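Hi support team,

I've been running sequence recovery on a batch of backbones for a student project. Most finish fine, but this one hangs at about 90% for roughly twenty minutes before it completes. I'm not sure whether the input is malformed or the queue is just slow. I've pasted the structure tokens below so you can try to reproduce it. Let me know if you need the job ID as well.

Thanks,
M.K.
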């Protein structure tokens, strides 16, 4: 403890001497502070922005789509190539696949499905999940170029679904005519594919699926006593089947469905020979009652706010969301929308913009609330303004941290900036309150009070700063081997707070003492004040007892 005390005393003395050397250069310090703010504005353009922190969950889902109308056997063959690529990826431990089904085992088209892949624990692999997905993406695009794939992490996908954001990048095209929307989307797609960091681009154009349209001959159906609905019901029963009861197999009831054989169901020519039972048990082939026309139709149509819409979606890899969206905006500006087409940006970018606007309002309210508390405490508006003037300089440290670590400014790191408002006030009050106390109770000159406060109150500032740093260090450098996140940088909230607490402590001690000095003095004070103060002994330290000041009060009249 004695050694630590001597180190603190030596640090305080050095800081006092450094402060005394620059205290008369207020204008230069002001220029330096202004330069810090300018640097912060420049860094704002360099730091990437995002929505939520990226996580390595140790598992991902690969969604695949073959062109519309692809046979099940062909889809199975192409997806088999993808499974072989995943099997030869050393970081992937196990996979499971579904074709023609989705979450909940709901039936979908035979040309869609997904593959769930689980990675080995993080301590057993040298690459993170994003590098693995990029490697698999490149191999699949080379081996099966016509297969469209998308990568999602399970937890991130659930969060995006709850927030209503399917993809990080989403360009919504609204209009009355679907063909105009698709033509504009196909015109944008080539330039969007050239945007660095934009992956798994889907232009929003859904290829129609082939189908066979049946038109019932009303006159022929009436002749045998059937309606078009009766003919349609008979065909539906033959293709989809009708429930005929249950049988028990191993003490478990199994439903029985009667339908036509697959050789009839999947052969349009044999479908014409499907027997239709009419009145009086008269059997008529379907081909004599209806005609069949091959055509194509869309599986689904998207509408939002009662407007026809298609959405161009994409993922982001290797770049921040804000940087990618800047390039996307330039592509949209180079290709103006045709008449009748309206463009809107959605996805995580829309949620990010809404969240940032709300957090800016919270930051302003926090500053106003803290300022109101300090006004009540100091009974003045000048001191709160003095404390808050250091805040812009302090935020430069957070931007430098984000830039050095390659972390995007997202919702989590923005919350850390809001928390810094309280830390700023804490350090400022510690210095300002001591300065006011020395000037009011002992009549000490302002320069001496500033130097004394900066040295004596350095100890509590260091104590609170170190407590904050050590308290947030385990969170900022969390080791999560099972989930896959290892090392610093995965917790931007903790990193911003811990790094900027140290930054603000340094900047408070450097810039804060000049603000009241500039306000009270237009010229340096008399040097005799410093000499007089030195004759009465050294400045008190945290270990030396403070001398109580004696006040001479006038005697009360009897």
């Amino acid at each position: 403890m004695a050694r630590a005390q001597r180190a603190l005393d030596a640090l305080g003395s050095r800081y006092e001497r450094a402060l005394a050397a620059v205290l008369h250069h207020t204008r230069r310090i002001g220029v330096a502070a202004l330069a810090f703010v300018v640097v912060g504005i420049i860094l704002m353009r360099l730091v990437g922005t995002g929505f939520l922190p990226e996580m390595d969950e140790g598992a991902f889902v690969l969604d695949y789509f073959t062109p519309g109308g692809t046979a099940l056997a062909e889809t199975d063959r192409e997806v088999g190539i993808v499974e072989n690529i995943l099997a030869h990826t050393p970081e992937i431990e196990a996979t499971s696949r579904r074709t023609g089904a989705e979450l909940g085992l709901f039936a979908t088209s035979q040309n869609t499905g997904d593959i769930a892949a689980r990675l080995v624990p993080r301590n057993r692999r040298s690459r993170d999940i994003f590098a693995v997905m990029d490697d698999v993406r490149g191999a699949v695009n080379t081996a099966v170029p016509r297969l469209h794939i998308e990568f999602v992490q399970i937890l991130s996908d659930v969060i995006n679904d709850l927030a209503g954001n399917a993809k990080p990048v989403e360009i919504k095209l609204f209009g009355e005519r679907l063909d105009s929307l698709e033509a504009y989307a196909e015109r944008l797609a080539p330039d969007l594919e050239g945007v660095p960091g934009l992956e798994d681009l889907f232009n929003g154009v859904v290829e129609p699926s082939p189908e066979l349209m049946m038109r019932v001959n009303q006159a022929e159906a009436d002749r045998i006593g059937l309606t078009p609905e009766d003919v349609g019901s008979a065909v539906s029963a033959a293709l989809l089947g009708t429930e005929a009861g249950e049988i028990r197999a191993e003490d478990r009831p199994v439903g029985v469905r009667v339908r036509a054989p697959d050789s009839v169901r999947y052969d349009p020519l044999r479908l014409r020979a499907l027997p239709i039972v009419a009145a009086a048990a008269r059997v008529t082939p379907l081909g004599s009652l209806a005609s069949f026309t091959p055509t194509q139709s869309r599986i689904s149509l998207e509408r939002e706010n009662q407007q026809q819409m298609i959405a161009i979606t994409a993922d982001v890899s290797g770049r921040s969301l804000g940087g990618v969206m800047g390039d996307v905006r330039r592509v949209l500006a180079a290709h103006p929308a045709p008449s009748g087409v309206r463009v809107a940006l959605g996805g995580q970018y829309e949620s990010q913009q809404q969240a940032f606007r709300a957090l800016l309002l919270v930051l302003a309210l926090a500053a106003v609330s803290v300022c109101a508390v300090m006004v009540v405490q100091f009974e003045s508006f000048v001191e709160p303004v003095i404390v808050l003037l250091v805040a812009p300089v302090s935020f430069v440290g957070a931007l430098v941290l984000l830039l050095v670590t390659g972390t995007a400014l997202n919702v989590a790191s923005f919350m850390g900036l809001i928390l810094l408002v309280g830390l700023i006030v804490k350090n400022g009050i510690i210095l300002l309150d001591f300065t006011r106390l020395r000037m009011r109770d002992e009549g000490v000159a302002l320069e001496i009070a500033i130097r004394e406060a900066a040295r004596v109150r350095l100890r509590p500032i260091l104590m609170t700063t170190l407590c904050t740093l050590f308290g947030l260090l385990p969170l900022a450098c969390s080791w999560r081997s099972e989930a896959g996140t290892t090392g610093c940088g995965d917790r931007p909230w903790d990193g911003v707070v811990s790094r900027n607490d140290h930054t603000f402590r340094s900047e408070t001690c450097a810039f804060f003492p000049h603000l009241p000095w500039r306000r009270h003095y237009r010229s340096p004070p008399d040097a005799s004040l410093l000499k007089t103060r030195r004759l009465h002994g050294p400045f008190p330290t945290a270990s030396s007892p403070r001398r109580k000041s004696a006040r001479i009060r006038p005697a009360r009249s009897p």
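--
Follow-up from support: It reproduced on our side and the slowdown came from queue contention, not your input. The chain has a mean pLDDT of 77. No action needed from you.
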